[in-house]
């Protein structure tokens, strides 16, 4: 009995079965969603294959695809385009108003600026290439014609007349350097945040050099910054560095290899790194050279000032000054801004238009009563 009990307690041996092999490189089986889509497409009907689409392409599309990367020597530039205009609109505009065929147009390049409200938009201009010079000349004759409601400007693609000149100087990379003013110690700083203060601006631009004065335009009610200010430096080099937007700072190489010779150390140039000063409070500032304060004052109130120029024509038309019995010039006839501002009533009828004056009117013995 004991031997039988021991045999019952022994573990059973599982039958030997071959291990399951999984092919990792096999494609993933389609999901239920993908199977439903395939079933729906099969019910609708077979879709067009790529070969069928290629057979349906017109010869014009094939030519355009072949010449997409090739630029012709005969091209035009079309400007003032509507942002929603497409290549087909440009093609239709040229073919309907010119005598050449559609195959003469070898390329239409219209840069895109992005999507707005879900619709693609262009940058307002396009380049069109032709196979012949005659076609390009005929297309340029369509300048100032309406294309989808706008009068387009057409000229030769190689004609760059009218393009603004590039700014000269070290600060060409900065848009603020193209202000047109000569380099000066006074700069204009724009695109400031409303929380910017005079102390913060002075501390920020002190990296460029010593600051003489900072003037911040503020609102009268809140006293906050309007978004722009003027900074005056003591040195011209500091102002130029601020307009460029960065300052070059020397780096001392403390960890130098001992094996370097003395001649190599002498010939080695000091390393420099850029410290950017064109960002403040998370905003990209716009810096440009401002007009000198004295020059601006002379233009407004000096000999050649705007107000003086406006006054010269009026002074010449003023009547000669009248003198009283003492020989001094009377106050009323003296030419001045107050007299120039008064209206001239001599051209009106004296009976219908009463001349205004500040004098006291004497009584005429008539009493006016109101019912």
UniProtKB/TrEMBL annotation:
InterPro entries: Nucleotide-bd_a/b_plait_sf, RBD_domain_sf, RRM_dom. Residues 251-260 have a biased composition (Acidic residues). This is RRM domain-containing protein. PANTHER family: EUKARYOTIC TRANSLATION INITIATION FACTOR 4B/4H (PTHR23236), NUCLEOLAR PROTEIN 13 (PTHR23236:SF95). Residues 50-64, 158-168, 302-312, 341-352 have a biased composition (Basic and acidic residues). Pfam families: RRM_1. Residues 74-159, 185-292 form the RRM domain. It comes from Aspergillus brasiliensis. GO terms for cellular component: nucleolus. Keywords: RNA-binding. One of its GO terms (molecular function) is RNA binding. Residues 1-67, 158-184, 251-272, 301-371 are annotated as: Disordered.
